Amino acid sequence: MSELQEALRNPVAGLLLRIVAVLTAALAIYHIFNLGSYTGYTMLTGQYIYGLLTMMLPMVFIAIPAARGRRIHSVPWYDWIMAITSSACCIFFIYHSETAVEHGWEYEAPQYVVYISLLTWALALEATRRCGGWPIFTVVFLASIFPMFAGKLPDSFAGIHTPIDLVAIYHTNSDESLLGIPSQAFANLVIGFLLFGIALQRTGGGKFFIDLAFALLGKVRGGPAKVSIFSSGLMGSMSGSVVTNVLTTGPLSIPAMRKVGFSRSYAAGVETCASTGGVLMPPVMGATAFVMATFLDIPYGEIAMAAAIPSALYFFGLFVQIDFYAGRNNLKGLPEIELPSVRQTLKEGWHYIFVFAFLIWMLLFMKQEAIAPFYATALLLVINQLRKHSRWVWKDFKDFAESCGALFAELTGLMAGVGLIMGALAVSGMSGTIANDLLFIAGGDIFILLLMGALTSFILGIGMPVTAAYIFLAIALAPALVNGGMNPLAVHLFILYWGMLSFITPPVAIGAFAAASVAGSSPMKTSFVSMQMGSIIYFIPFFFVLEPALILQGTPREIVVAIVCAVGGILMVAGGLQGYLPRLGNLTERGFLHWPLRLMLVVGGLLLAMPHNPLLALNELQLFLLSIGILVAAFVLAGLHKKLQPA
Known about the structure:
- The chain crosses the membrane at residues 12-33, 48-65, 77-97, 109-125, 132-150, 181-200, 266-291, 303-327, 348-364, 407-427, 433-451, 458-482, 494-515, 536-553, 559-580, 592-609, 621-640.
- This protein has 647 residues and is mainly α.
- Among the domains are: 2-178, no CATH class; 554-647.
- It has helices at residues 2-7, 11-32, 36-39, 45-63, 77-95, 97-103, 111-132, 134-149, 164-173, 181-202, 205-217, 223-239, 242-259, 264-279, 287-296, 300-329, 342-365, 372-386, 394-427, 430-441, 446-463, 466-476, 478-483, 488-500, 510-519, 523-533, 536-546, 556-578, 594-609, 620-644, and strands spanning 580-581, 585-586.
- It starts with a helix and ends with a helix.
């Protein structure tokens, strides 16, 4: 967002972003609320999406300079040309949308349509470059032209050879590329939640959640770090952005952690992990979850329900690790006199909880995920305007519109790029064959395929936005895992989790670098701390993909047993990672038994939490007994060592 925020210094760009944001929201409301049934004009899906692109694609060229990091105080002539041209191309496809459907322009179109499609393709690539940078542009460009060379590759990677004119019209007219799942999810689901997330931040929701967390947890052992988990989890679940979450809650939580004895890098690492987990926490999660709902053709509420237990397990793992770390290092909480009052905090911010509950009710019980965020945003703004101390003035509304327009423009460029990847895989026939190729490479071994998927998700998550990486893997890898007998929803969540890991894992670790800038710590050291703190998230995807009961896919008994085992296992793993357990005390004081004890706790905890372990030819009961045996041995050994130590 830095490039776009910089662009807002340009009065023209700021004004246009405000106007376009209002028009985009109005068009989305018109389509999503089906107002066409009252006006007598209902848009086709293609017309709606191109309508959004008509407004948002030009803003990419107006608001984001061609060279990143270059400040602009006026829009260059060539950017105006690209903006006007991109808008004209989109208007052309809106006007001819019915003709395109009737005559199948995605497979055969007049020559002038081919030229306009080539121009639109080129402009979409440039928009992707400006929004995502050169690495993402390179991936999207190579993928989008792949069909032209697909027939010349070795048999294992070969696809259907497609001439450039057919590729161009497929990208612009089919439901698989620029008009595909990424754009559909953005147009039908994401816009409303982006409005809600920005409204929440602008009305002071971030400060409320931090104050509430301090009031509830500030005085307990390691309190400020636990505050970070609570506040960042709540804020992140609604903002859907790791970096935004870090920059919103970090400036308050990180100094508080420093005050009670946490190092700069540890405080920044905690904030990074908490903010990353917030994006995986229902009800909002991130844009990727809405794309997932479209892929699986299930209500978003089902995905939110399924993601609840894994995200809760992740935050539980973070919480106990911080508690054990504080216990091992004798870190206290903040004095009660320095903390806000729970009663006063709730009195000032009760409406955030009310709106939050209203959103959950509409999502999970009313199953109105498309319209829920619009109602929640309207409710939040109305209540905010009725409260004197937080009431917006005209400038606040302008800032809100500018922020919405900037975020819409950035995501439009990225979604267009992701759509081009999907279109290329579809037109070349690779989306239907790559899954079988992967199964063949893995030798039919599902665990090897899972490891391949985890590694690929992580690598793509480094160089691409999480949504782009997820969509590619949802097409290429997910069918192979599903065909191998894995639960479809668990597979897609597995991919999402591993794509998110790049935020906390070096060498990129974008979230850790953002937190390091707030804490004034070494970015690389912070990323390694965040990797250690969030290490449980590397295992949780394997837990639920091998035991779908953890995503509520099973009988009540299976779900309860799976959750209990996972909680116990994570508790032991956290104790091993931090070298501390309440009953055993500081394991680092066990001399030569220090590392063996910690290793036994980690191994025993992992076996307990993951009953379906493909590496061991044991049934569930045998694995359970093995894990209990290892953990009991660790406790007995630690207890004996403690008794034998001189007083």
